[in-house]
Amino acid sequence: MDFTFNCPNCKQELEVDITAVGSAVDCPACNRKMTVPSPDITRIRAAPHGQPATTDASREEKHFVVPLHEGPAEHLITKTTPTLEFAAKELDKKIRIQTFRRVDTMTVNKDHFDEVVSAFLQKVGQQYVISITPITYTYKDLATEHYVTDYGVMVVFRG
Ligand SMILES: [Zn+2]
User: What's the 29 CA to ligand 1 centre distance in angstroms?
Assistant: First the structure.
């Protein structure tokens, strides 16, 4: 026959076979040696000292521990949360376009087109670049008064 009593050291509720009454055992909760009390004494003590703050605290602690041991499901939830947050963040970013015309990236003698576009893509980040489309356009060259056809790119991205 089993009966329950509280460890005199840590107040943990313990279950023991009645044949163990009076013998010295190690408390499985706090690992301290104690003597198993007789069931009657336990019952008398349990009434007035049943709800001290320390007992509640240690019992609550136990309640928190149990779900952790059952934990694979909880572990999955923990892993899933950052992914969902990341996805939400990604959706927060609006789809935008940025058009680069080569003529806009030129200084007097030098073409900075590749540098400018590379720097832009670096800033956006590879995972947010949706597409890069070549474009052609015509502009009037101020020096020659001629219409010139040139190229550029249109970048669709999230940002
Ligand atoms: Zn104990």
Answer: 5
9 Cα: distance to centroid of ligand 1 (angstroms): 5
Domains of the chain with bracketed CATH: 2-69 (2.20.28), 92-158 (no CATH)
Query: Which residue shows structure tokens 């089993």?
Result: 2
Flag whether pLDDT at 20 surpasses 50: yes
- Dihedral angle, C-alpha 12, 17, 19, 24, nearest 10 °: -30
Residue 158 is encoded by which pair of tokens? 């999230």
The helix/strand/coil state of 91 is helix
Task: Locate all alpha helices (DSSP H) within 111-154, ordered by sequence.
Answer: 113-124
Query: 20 CA to middle of ligand 1, Å?
Result: 16
Q: Give dist(CA 152, CA 101) in Å, integer.
A: 4
Q: What is the pLDDT of residues 106-116, one digit of tens each?
A: 887 788 999 99
Please tell me the distance between residue 87's alpha carbon and the centre of ligand 1 in angstroms. 47
What is the whole-number distance in angstroms between the Cα of residue 13 and the centre of ligand 1? 8
3 C-alpha to ligand 1 centroid (Å): 16
Residue 68 has a pLDDT of 40
Tokens of 126: 């590879």
